[in-house]
């Protein structure tokens, strides 16, 4: 009898178990009476990759005239995977869904370690406080892990100037004895802030 050694090579990639199918051929000095085949299974021992969430900029503008209105929202894997990894984004915070746009799914192709989408501010005509977009993520634990739980916050900077105000009165002349008139302040545009 004679033998050789089959040795598995470790690779840092999450993948399915794999098989090595061994066939043989024989020179004229031996006889393989029937075709023979042996299978060895290489067991995957790498855990699903860990996902990290981050944003390129901590704040963006609503209006392009004031500055950058977009930021990349990126997820990275600590190791490659032979599977496509999908990460779902969820948002909360003080900003409403009309204040920004953001794709809720990031797909990382098999063999890659990074994927990203773009968060964009949406301009409006209302004077308001700066608002926040709080981004959370989830992923299928069969294909990736989030450890620890992660959250990123982006501030939407308000670029709308305070509204112009016009002052008017009901009557320009009133009687000295208990006369009165209405004084009215009118804003040119709606404001989300209290105006006094």
Describe the structure.
The chain has 196 residues and is an all-beta fold. It is 0% helix and 41% strand. It contains no helices and 15 strands. The strands form 5 sheets. It has a 5-stranded mixed sheet with strand order 5-13-12-8-10, with no helix packed on it. A 4-stranded antiparallel sheet has the order 4-6-11-9, with no helix packed on it. Strands 1-7 form a two-stranded parallel sheet. The radius of gyration is 32 Å and the shape is rod-shaped. The relative contact order is 0.19. The model has no long low-confidence stretch (mean pLDDT 89).
Task: Give me a quick take on this structure.
By secondary structure, the protein is an all-beta fold. It has no helices and 15 strands.
Structural class, from helix and strand content? mainly beta
Query: How would you describe the shape?
Result: rod-shaped
Strand order of the largest sheet: 5-13-12-8-10
Element order, helices and strands? Answer: EEEEEEEEEEEEEEE
Q: Kindly state the percentage of residues in helix.
A: under 10%
* Percentage of β-strand residues: 35-45%
Q: List the total number of helices.
A: 0
Terminal CA distance: 98 Å
Mean pLDDT: 89
- Biggest sheet statistics: 5 strands, mixed
Give unreliable regions as ranges: none
SS elements, strand count = 15
């Amino acid at each position: 009898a004679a033998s050789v050694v089959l040795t598995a090579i470790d690779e840092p990639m999450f993948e399915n178990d794999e098989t090595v199918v061994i066939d043989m051929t024989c020179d004229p000095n031996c006889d393989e009476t029937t075709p023979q085949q042996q299978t060895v299974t290489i067991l995957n021992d790498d855990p699903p990759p860990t996902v990290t969430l981050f944003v390129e900029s901590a704040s963006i503008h609503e209006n392009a005239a004031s500055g950058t209105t977009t930021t990349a929202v990126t997820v990275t894997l600590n190791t490659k995977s032979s599977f496509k990894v999908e990460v779902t984004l969820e948002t909360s915070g003080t900003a409403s869904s009309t204040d920004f746009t953001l794709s809720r799914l990031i797909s990382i192709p098999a063999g890659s370690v990074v994927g990203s989408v773009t968060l964009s501010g949406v301009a409006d005509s209302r004077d308001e406080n700066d608002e926040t977009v709080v981004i959370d993520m989830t992923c299928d634990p069969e294909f990736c892990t989030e450890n620890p739980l992660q959250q990123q916050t982006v501030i939407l900077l308000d670029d709308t100037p305070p509204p112009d105000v016009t002052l008017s009165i009901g009557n320009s002349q009133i009687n000295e004895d208990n006369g009165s008139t209405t004084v009215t302040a009118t804003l040119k545009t709606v404001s989300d802030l209290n105006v006094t």
